[in-house]
Design a protein that fits this description.
With 383 residues, this protein is an all-alpha fold. The strands form 2 sheets. It has a two-stranded antiparallel ribbon with strand order 1-4. A two-stranded antiparallel ribbon has the order 2-3. The termini are close together.
């Protein structure tokens, strides 16, 4: 992990920083309501099949990782980086991100016998590593990357729908039953290797097998990054990216009739659909910011987008501290700091559904202010 005090270079794609920053803001917003019993439906994940705006956030970030990877590797190679240096850089970066995720899962007691091994940051680190290796092994050629995406998505579809699971048979994509048990292959593999170390007793949405289509999400971002780095005119880039996005939405939606769009399973249809959505949003940002030059509205997202992992880690760490640690002298069952602050300063302001959202918006504001301070001091924390 390094801390630099250099301003972002003018060669950076500002619309990508803005898209990244908006995604981080959305992550914080949906992760930190004041009261989980009162949350607007669009700010919750879909219960199983189908999607909500919240289900777009994580694949958006993995797609952005791919776009950024295409730009950063090209820059490193232009500065003389060798393939060996790029491999080592990818391994080191992935290891740090994975380790940060493990730290957050274990903090503050680090119960090794039951710590959750995977999670959001762990998936980002693992997917970054695998996508980087694929990209480098194929010497940054796009045709084999496209073939790899097809193999990952079609292969995952075949595995999840054709391979029988003991006690359930093939293609069981039903939601958890009353005990929490699910019968899909991804959950079965996680139970074989991760029992006691999962998000839920019988399954984990960031488990082993579902990492494969998540890698495809990042590889699709790499393709978008290559397109944006090309010598095409800006309007051609915009129209191409938008057209690819619409195609992804259509193909993903149609595929979802046979392999349902499902974030918890990271289905192939979900991968294509969310990558298409990401293309459309990035194209819109590119048109507004890089073509039209309308930038002032997006300043907070630039601050967040230039220190994304640092801000996300800090927000998650603070949120966990507020929940874990308790206020002394608040009764036989002491309130957490989060509960104390929410009940005393937010709950009295109105209806629970509104005050819960107000807490989340306050959380976003606090960490946007932190990002602003880092940006103004030219502090950029890189992993």
């Amino acid at each position: 992990m390094t801390v630099t005090t250099e301003r972002p270079t003018q060669s950076r794609l500002l619309s990508l920083d803005i898209f990244r920053g908006a995604t981080i803001a959305a992550m914080i917003l949906v992760n930190d309501p004041g009261d989980w019993a009162y949350v607007y439906h669009p700010l919750l994940h879909a219960e199983w099949h189908d999607w909500t705006p919240t289900d777009l956030i994580f694949p958006f970030f993995l797609f952005i990782v791919g776009v950024s990877l295409a730009f950063s590797f090209a820059g490193r190679i232009a500065r003389g980086a060798t393939p060996r240096a790029l491999y080592l850089h990818s391994l080191q970066r992935a290891g740090i991100i994975f380790g940060l995720g493990l730290f957050l899962n274990g903090f503050p007691y680090f119960p090794l016998s039951r710590i959750r091994i995977f999670g959001v940051l762990q998936r980002i680190g693992l997917v970054y590593l695998l996508a980087s290796l694929i990209y480098l092994i194929f010497r940054r050629r796009l045709r084999p990357v496209v073939v790899t995406i097809a193999v990952l998505l079609l292969g995952y579809w075949a595995l999840m729908t054709l391979v029988p699971v003991p006690g359930f048979g093939p293609g069981n994509l039903n939601p958890p039953d009353a005990s929490g048990m699910v019968g899909n292959l991804a959950a079965y593999i996680d139970r074989l290797f991760l029992t006691g170390h999962m998000w839920r007793k019988f399954w984990d949405p960031e488990g082993l097998l579902s990492t494969l289509p998540a890698v495809a999400s990042t590889l699709l971002g790499i393709l978008a990054g290559h397109w944006l780095r090309s010598n095409q005119a800006q309007d051609v880039k915009f129209h191409g990216l938008a057209a690819a996005g619409v195609a992804g939405l259509v193909v993903g939606g149609i595929w979802g009739r046979w392999f349902p769009i499902n974030k918890s399973l990271w289905t192939s249809s979900y991968t294509v659909f969310t990558a298409g959505f990401a293309c459309v949003v990035l194209a819109l940002c590119y048109w507004l910011v890089d073509i039209k030059g309308w930038r002032r509205w997006a300043a907070p997202f630039v601050w967040l987008g230039t220190n994304p992992l640092a801000v996300f880690f800090a927000s998650t760490f603070v949120a966990k501290c507020l929940i874990i640690f308790h206020v002394p002298g608040t009764g036989p069952k002491p309130l957490s700091w989060q509960g104390y602050l929410y009940q005393h300063f937010f709950a009295p302001l109105g209806q629970p559904i509104h005050t819960s959202l107000a807490w989340a918006l306050c959380f976003v504001t606090v960490f946007t202010a932190l990002a602003f301070v880092l940006y103004k001091k030219h502090i950029f924390i890189k992993v």
